[in-house]
Amino acid sequence: MIGYRWYHIVLSIFVTTLIVSNIIAVKIVTIFGLILPAAVILFPVAYIIGDVLTEVYGYGRARQAIWIAFGCNLLAVAAIWIAGLLPPASSWTVGALNGPEEAAQAFQAILGFTPRLLLASFIAYLVGEFVNAFILAKMKILTQGRYLWTRTIGSTLIGQGIDSLLFISIAFYGVLPSSILVSAILAQWLVKSAYEVLATPLTYLVVNNLKRAESIDTFDTNTDFSPLHVG
Q1: Residue 125 maps to a domain
Q2: Per-residue pLDDT tens for 150-206?
Q3: Is the pTM of this model over 0.85?
Q4: Which tens digit of pLDDT belongs to each residue from 20-70?
Q5: Count of domains for the chain
Q6: What range defines the domain where residue 114 resides?
Q7: Is 225 within a domain?
Q8: How many Cα atoms sit within 13 Å of 195 on the Cβ side?
C-alpha cells in the first residue's frame, strides 16, 4: 500500500461513520411520515465510502476496510457493555436525574445493546457491505470503468436492500406484525437508496479526485473475492 496517501483517511471516515451510526440508532425518528432509526442520517454514508474504496482501491482494500470497521465497532460495543457493568459512583448525577441509579439506568437505556439487535446489526452490515463491494467491482469490469453512477447506485440498491431485509427481519421478527416489518424494510431501503442517488455528484467528485491523487484506478480482474481472505 506504499504511495496510498489518502486510503487511511477514507478508512478512518468509514470506521467513524459505522460506530457513530450504531450509537445514534437507538433514537427513533419520523422523517416525511416514515418511522426510522436516527442512524439513517449517517449510515448510508458508509455505503458511499464503501463504493469509493472499491472503485478507487479495489475489492481487496474495501474488504480490508470492512473487517477493520467491524473490529472497531466490536471494540466500541465491548467497551460500552463493560462500562455499563461497572458500579456507578455515589456522586454521579446527570441533569435532572435523581442520583446514580437513575443515571445508570439512563446510560443503559441509551447506550446498552440487546444481543438480538447486535446480532442483526453485525450480520446485516457484513453481508450488505460485502455484496455492495462485490457487485460494484464486477460491474466496473463489465462497464469497462464507464458509467460510475450505474455501479454506485446499482450496488447500493442491492446491498442496502439486503442490509435492511436482514436487520429488520432478525431484530424484529416475532415482535412486530408482518405488515409493519415489510413497511419498515421498504422504508429503510428507499431512504438509504435515495441518499445514494442524491450523493452521486459528490461521489463522482471524491472518486475522480482520489484517482488523480493516488494515480490509481483498480480493476478486479484477478481478485479473490472471498470475504475471508483479508491478506
Answers
A1: yes
A2: 999 999 999 999 999 998 899 888 877 888 889 888 988 988 889 889 999 999 999
A3: yes
A4: 988 888 787 888 787 778 888 898 899 999 999 999 999 999 999 999 999
A5: 1
A6: 7-214
A7: no
A8: 19
